[in-house]
Amino acid sequence: MKDLRYNLITRPAMALVAFISLFVLGAAAPNAHAQQQCSVATLRGLYGFHALATVVPAGTPRTLLGMFNFDGHGTWSLNLTVDDNGIVHTVSDGGTYIVNPDCTGALNPASGGTVAIVIVDDGREIYQMRTVPGTIVLYSTTKKVFPGLGQ
Fold it and tell me: Which domains, ranges and CATH numbers included, belong to the chain?
């Protein structure tokens, strides 16, 4: 009788200890899905993009098609074609960029203004939003391999 009572008490207690140990050990183990860490080196190479925009307050459409080149050290250049409500022109620009460890950052064009960025997929894609008054632009930029351009 004593062995039966001992088993009825100790087995559930041991099961509870084992169950709790799984959580404790799991919390101490490194996270297999650790959050991505970024730096200016995360952005390196050529990235193609396209965007649709609205110029405010006029409400006229703007389309953009271009290519960024990030050097991995905090400097970028850009060549793009812009269609402003039917008037097409090309633009070259460049500037500096910062990247925070949480993969957010900013582009600082030499032409002025700021573009907020979020880096995703280990630097293979960038979400961007122009943060100056006068134009609403939200676009996605994807790293591409361009044969013959050193990529």
Answer: 40-143 (2.40.128.20)
| Each residue's pLDDT expressed in tens, for the chain with a length of 151 residues | 555 444 444 455 444 344 444 333 344 334 334 567 999 999 999 999 988 888 887 888 889 999 999 999 999 999 999 999 999 999 999 999 999 999 999 999 999 999 999 999 999 999 999 887 776 777 777 787 666 665 5
Using DSSP bridges, classify how beta strands 87-99 and 44-55 pair: parallel, antiparallel or unpaired. unpaired
Q: Please, is 50 exposed, middle or buried when counting C-beta atoms within 10 Å of its C-beta (0-12, 13-18, 19+)?
A: middle
Quote the pTM value: 0.69
DSSP letter string, the chain: -HHHHHHHHHHHHHHHHHHHHHHHHHHHSPPTTPPP---GGG-EEEEEEEEEEEETTTTEEEEEEEEEEEESSSEEEEEEEEEETTEEEEEEEEEEEEE-TTSEEEEEETTS--EEEEEEGGGTEEEEEE-STTEEEEEEEEE---TTTT-
